[in-house]
Amino acid sequence: MSDYQTIEVTHDGPRSTIQVQRPDKLNALNTTVLEELEAAALDLQTRDGLRVVVVEGEGRAFVAGADIASMAEMSAEQGRAFLRQGHDTMNAIESIPVPTVAAVDGFALGGGLELAIACDLIVASDRAAFGAPEVKLGIIPGFGGTQRLRRMIGAHRARHLVFTGERIDAETAADYGLVLEVVDADDFSGHIDSLASSIESRGPLALKAAKRVMHQGQDLDLDEGLSAERQAFADLFETEDRLKGMEAFLDRRDPNFNGE
Ligand code: COA
User: Fold this and answer.
1) Confidence of residue 103 (pLDDT cuts 50, 70, 90)
2) Whether pTM exceeds 0.70
3) DSSP alpha helices (H): ranges in the chain?
4) Whether the predicted pLDDT of 256 surpasses 60
5) Which of 96, 137, 227, 260 is the 20 to 30 A CA-CA neighbour of 79?
6) Contact 132, 139 (CB under 8 A)
């Protein structure tokens, strides 16, 4: 448990869960939520034994966007500081060294969509809805959406979402490649639990290396990316975990990784 006011971070062995908790405002991101999310992400970046992180929202929204009521009162200078905080927060989430899962069981709009795409995997319930409605407010996505969305679903679909501001349902989001899978809302938490369990049972050093190399590769050419892959693979060959993993396979039992 944590001392935050607008989020809660819980730990269960190798899994940590961050829940945004402003359900009466559909978990809209004001400065406090952004600062607390950044602090939580920075804290998780150095947490021993962590293997997977789930990000979710309380109630009927994942996150319905940046807080419009706060933004309406901001000067241009305050708006710039808010954006800077938004970027710092999403970068901190993206830099959590283990796989992160956005569990979207409701609205993921604007900053909520941007929070989801700062995570590695997005799983949606069948009542989830996604969108980048900022142009309806006379602004553009400002917490990384103009950049990360294109990387995740390609330029054409990213432009469609950003130019129209229209919402799409979970099935369409899956069609776009934005969502990994759509799950019945009644089975949602069980499904997230089994996905997180599957990830956290794998080699912890391998999980971190895989995430790091795949992220690096987005901004490298193929040769540089393959070189990063070779280096990470060679480093893993030096670890006890890879011996444990391979011996367990040959002995037909589950491995017992210890992250060394
Ligand atoms: N910022 C601030 N408050 C928000 C919010 C946001 N992004 N999204 C929802 N809320 C608040 C509403 O103002 C309302 O507060 P109130 O009860 O004090 O009036 C509460 O959350 C519930 O929202 P409401 O609009 O009554 O729910 P709904 O089911 O009718 O509609 C949405 C849900 C998500 C369609 C609608 O709230 C919406 O369009 N939100 C804004 C989405 C957006 O533009 N996000 C991008 C911002 S950059």
Assistant:
1) very high
2) yes
3) 31-45, 68-72, 76-94, 111-117, 145-153, 155-164, 170-175, 188-200, 204-217, 222-237, 240-250
4) yes
5) 96
6) no
Judge if the beta carbon of residue 134 lies within 6 A of ligand 1: yes
Atom of ligand 1 nearest to the CA of 26: 21
Ligand 1 pocket, mutate which of 26, 135, 162, 166 (most atoms under 8 A from CB): 26
Question: How far is Cα 119 from Cα 179, in angstroms, rounded to an integer?
Answer: 11
Q: How far is the CA of 45 from the centre of ligand 1 (A)?
A: 31
Which pLDDT score, from 0 to 100, does residue 123 have? 98
**CA 65–ligand 1 middle distance (angstroms):** 8
Supply the Cα-derived Rg of the chain in whole angstroms: 19
Active-site residue 229, yes or no?
no
CB 40 within 8 A of CB 7: yes
Q: Which domains does the chain have, with CATH numbers?
A: 7-200 (3.90.226.10), 204-250 (1.10.12.10)
Q: Which of 94, 134, 166, 200 is catalytic?
A: 134
Ligand 1 mean position, distance from CA 86 (Å):
19
